[in-house]
Design goal:
By secondary structure, the chain is α+β, with helices and mostly antiparallel strands. It has 7 helices and 4 strands, in the order ββββααααααα. A 4-stranded antiparallel beta sheet has the order 1-2-3-4, with helices on one face. It is elongated. The termini are far apart.
Length: 213
């Protein structure tokens, strides 16, 4: 890890003060950058220089540190398209069941830069949907989709952190089971063809999920 230099700055990032504000100077991809920090305090400016330097060392966009968008930054809609094309490992049935949820998320966030979508925006959206009458279980599905999509955006270097990662799903409570009575099972089996009857017997005796069955 580089040590702070004697001159103001840190590592690859030098600081220059003009008037009352500090500017950060550094070179990335052969291009010299000079960024106004809008900071007047030297210690605060050096802390920001360290953040920029650490980002450069990790190969991440330095723009994140100063609240800018990297050139060619992805929108949420573009990220979703890429996720569905090459980053989605959902099973076909899960992909189909999540499709309406993903479309609604794109309708809400699609035009925004994916790196600008923060935790507050996600929590605000979910709260609004709950106020509109959306079930807690459905809100949890929205959140889970966001966790996966934003997690992939993090893997691809499009965002510095996953803003959905620390948001907890809401407790949904437990539904009481409502099993068929023995006489109902007999009535159902009586009208089934042999092949379907065997399937129904296995289901009623084991409680397998549909995919397992």
């Amino acid at each position: 890890m580089p040590r702070p230099a004697k001159a103001a700055g840190y590592g690859r990032v030098r600081l220059n003060k003009r008037d009352k504000y500090f500017y950060a100077r550094f070179t990335v991809d052969g291009k010299r950058q000079e960024i106004p920090l809008r900071i007047t305090n030297k210690l605060t400016a050096e802390a920001k220089a360290r953040e920029i330097n650490d980002t450069l060392e990790k190969g991440q966009p330095w723009e994140w540190v100063v609240g800018r968008q990297p050139i060619g930054a992805k929108t949420f809609a573009e990220t979703v398209d890429e996720f569905l094309e090459k980053g989605c490992n959902w099973a076909a049935t899960t992909r189909a069941s999540n499709a309406p949820t993903v479309r609604m998320l794109v309708r809400e966030f699609g035009h925004q830069s994916v790196s600008k979508i923060g935790r507050a925006a996600i929590e605000g959206y979910l709260a609004r949907r709950r106020d509109e009458g959306l079930k807690i279980s459905s809100c949890n599905r929205y959140l889970c989709c966001l966790k996966v999509i934003m997690g992939k955006a993090l893997d691809w270097g499009y965002i510095p952190v996953n803003p959905a990662a620390e948001i907890k799903v809401q407790p949904e409570g437990h539904k009481l089971p409502n099993p068929f009575r023995a006489d109902e099972v007999r009535s159902i089996l009586a009208v089934l063809q042999d092949r379907h009857e065997r399937i129904a017997v296995i289901y009623s005796e084991t409680g397998l999920r549909l995919g397992e069955l």
